[in-house]
Known about the structure:
The chain is built from six helices and no strands. The chain has helices at 10-21, 23-30, 34-41, 51-63, 70-113, 121-146.
Amino acid sequence: MTHLRAPLTFAGAMTQVAGLIGYPAAAAIAGRAERTIYAWAHPGSKTVPPIDQALAFDAAWREAGGVGAPFLDAFAFQLGLVVERQQACARALVAEVGTVSRETGEAIAAALSLTHSTPSPLEALRAFAEVTQAGDAIGALQQRVASFLPSGAGPDAGSTGVSR
């Protein structure tokens, strides 16, 4: 059965290289059995060639007339995804901080309005709602900040880039 290999993955890169230079040649480059090359080319594989062998595969790919560098291209793409997730998390943190600023400002203003003359029950209810919203916003910010903690230091520790 043919397995679908997503472009710009390490399995896809191994399939490209082995498809051009042949699985026996790839096995010789890696100093491994051919079944290892097939395993690296399988989309469900949890293993990939070490970096020095990936470099050798890209060099062999080029030497055989291939254009580009499949492992380098896959690595660059995967790195780009990681960086984008990190930047997205930082952008989400900025948005959370903005929400907390707005909500706490509204809560403070509503609470201060209770100090003028005799507040109405509606004003008290509005202040309570604003303070509750500010508390919720701070809770969300706390969760976002926790995603930046190093491993073992809080909820979702070490998983920077986690979107909530």
